[in-house]
Amino acid sequence: TDAIVAYSESIKIDSNCLEAKRKLSLIYANEKREDTSIKLLQEVVENNPLFVLSQLNLANRYYFKGWEFEAIRQNKLALFYNPKNALSYHYLGYFYEVKDEYEKAIFYYKQALKRNYHLNEVRKSLANLYYKLGKIKKSIKEYKTCLMLDYFDISIYFSLGQIYYNENEVPSSTRNNIKNNYILLVGKFDEYSGSKHKTSYQEGNGMF
Q1: How far apart (Å, rounded) are the C-alpha atoms in residues 19 and 29?
Q2: Which of 21, 48, 121, 171 has the fewest CB within 10 Å, making it most exposed?
Q3: Alpha-carbon distance 30 to 20, whole Å?
């Protein structure tokens, strides 16, 4: 593609153009050329370990190759260079949730939120995990916080609607309020009404 040619030329002119290598690696990843993508990212990280975004990109490429240990190690390395990076904690939470290590997943999701309170994708992941573990009140609390941060995120209404539908002990007045708001939003976002809610990671590569 034109983008591959352009980035490749940039690298020929300046082999230390790390951002060009990083972007080229992402194009290769989208084309399912994972080994080439990983090789480029490894070069970038080797040249500049402080380039934390590349550390994260490399960790995620490892994950999609099925190399869980390497993915976790790479994310922790990114945290070593930038302990304030909320995305590293988010990804680690997701990795551990997939491995069914739920306490670790909760820990890392919470750490991500400590560093960036407004990361609603992290909070939704935490709320969903709480629900999966049967911690209904904690799940609802996190989803309600999500609504405070983004009232027009229809996926939150969908998730809350599922919880209220399944949990009979929730007051009917609360269920009706959520239902009415959900119907209102579906009317505004018609295209969403027939789709099934998924997290950003379940939809595909998401931010990876």
Answers
A1: 15
A2: 171
A3: 16
CA 119 to the chain's CA centroid: 10
Report which DSSP code applies to 101: -
Query: Would residue 100 be called left, alpha or beta, if left means φ above 0 and alpha means ψ between -120 and 50 degrees?
Result: left
* In contact, 44 and 25? CB cutoff 8 Å: yes
The CB-side HSE value for 36 (13 A sphere, CA atoms) comes to 13
Q: What's the CA gap between 69 and 7, in Å, rounded?
A: 31
- pLDDT string in tens for the chain (208-residue length): 778 888 788 887 777 788 888 899 999 998 889 999 999 999 999 888 888 889 889 998 998 898 989 999 998 988 888 888 898 999 999 999 999 999 999 999 999 999 999 999 999 999 999 999 999 999 999 999 998 898 888 888 888 878 877 766 555 556 566 666 655 555 544 444 444 444 333 333 333 3
Q: How many CA atoms lie within 13 A of 146 on its CB side?
A: 25
